Amino acid sequence: MSALSQEVIDAAMQRAIALAYKGPRTSNHRVGCVILDGDGQEVGAGFYQGPGSAHAEVEALKVAGDLARGSTAIVTLEPCNHTGRTGPCTQALIQAGIAQVIFAQHDPNPVAAGGTGVLQAAGILVMDGIQTQAAMRINVAYDHVRATGRPYVVLKLAQTIDARISGSQGGPTPISGPQARLFTHELRSQCDAVLVGTGTALADDPQLTVREIQSGDQPLREIMGERDLPPGLRIFDDAASTLILREEDPKRALGTLLASGVQQVLLEGGPTLATAFLEAGCVDEVVWLLAPTLMGSGLASTQPLPRVIPVDVTEVRLIGNDVMVRGRIAPQH
Q1: Both 216 and 297 in a single domain?
Q2: Terminus-to-terminus CA distance in the chain, angstroms?
Q3: Rounded distance, CA 278 to CA 298, Å?
Q4: pLDDT at res. 1
């Protein structure tokens, strides 16, 4: 087997991650797998499609057939060493003659963990830690719900450099550039639900759907607040389902959403909603889209907070002419 370049490995892992996102959000860890021959050409690919179905590695091996022998399996999650509804992926890889396994994230499930040792004992080369942060993001909501009992909440703030989200005149104000707006649609496609308050629904009349990119099911649109809304708003069109939460307490609202099957929420509301969730300790991750603009006055992205809330930055990226900063709320908050 010829050595694969880091560029080829990274590209294959990115494809495996994209495949993993096609899997169901709520039933188990989502996993993607790509199999490369010695020349770095893809000969098989697959993803986990739900309870009772074959795991991603087995799906990819089916596609690869005899070409799997001597090849490399690129997997988003450590191959399982557990017999449940299906057999362990470690044995499937060994029996197929895979020569090398490269995975991103160790399996956090102690029942299924231990695949690395089994593969190595069979003479298979194992490499881990490739694009781990990106792979962990695939299942962050699934793991979070099981650890905390509430949905994972991502707060998205599109603002100017001086933290304004609209001008002094109020109403919809274009802030982000076209590439950053496209990124917002990607964020929506990765979530079960998009949440705004009644104030944002009235002021901006957003549709809150995934557009401009290919996606599966549309996320649930949620409006939180006690004000009545006119039925002609775009959020009530037939492009996606809409749920009204006549509630002002973030924790109770998230309890209702979890009972509806929601595991990950994208919070796109205005400063009132953002501040309420931050104060309640119900924000897990923040995504800032910073436009290279100074507005000088207007509505700020959040209201004054009663305490400092530290954020551990995990990613900084230029998207078009905007800067994306992503970070996790520090655990003590």
Answers
A1: yes
A2: 49
A3: 21
A4: 44
Residues 69 and 208 grouped into a single domain: no
168 pLDDT more than 70:
no
Angstrom distance (rounded) from CA 192 to CA 240: 12
Range of the domain at 114: 6-138
The 10s digit of each residue's pLDDT in 274-296 is 999 999 999 999 999 999 999 88
Q: Is the pLDDT at 171 greater than 70, yes or no?
A: no
CATH number, domain of 38, equals: 3.40.140.10
Give the count of alpha carbons within 13 A of 308, CB side only: 3
Q: Which residue has the tokens 């298979």?
A: 124
Instruction: Clarify whether residues 299 and 234 are in a common domain.
Output: yes
Q: Which residues contact 331 (CB under 8 A, 6 or more apart)?
A: none
Q: Tell the residue number behind the tokens 């690129």, with chain if given.
A: 74
Q: Which of 61, 83, 64, 74 has the alpha carbon at shortest distance from 105? A: 74
Q: Tally the domains of the chain.
A: 2
Q: Which of 138, 172, 189 is the last residue of a domain?
A: 138
Please report which residue ranges of the chain form alpha helices under DSSP H: 6-20, 56-64, 89-96, 115-121, 132-138, 140-148, 178-189, 198-204, 250-259, 271-279
Indicate if 215 and 263 belong to the same structural domain: yes
User: In terms of domains, do 132 and 154 share one?
Assistant: no
**Which residues does 7 contact at the CB level (< 8 Å), separation at least 6?**
none
Query: CATH number, domain at 226?
Result: 3.40.430.10
Catalytic pick among 42, 57, 59, 285:
57
Report the candidate in 251, 72, 270, 73 with the shortest Cα–Cα distance to residue 165. 270
Q: What are phi and psi of 83, to 5 degrees?
A: -105, 115
Report CA-CA distances (Å) from 210 to 184, 192, 194, 226: 9, 11, 10, 26
Q: Is 268 designated active site?
A: no
Residues 234 and 103 in one domain: no
What pLDDT shows up at residue 170?
Answer: 64
**Residues 199, 247 within the same domain:** yes
194/259 same-domain check:
yes
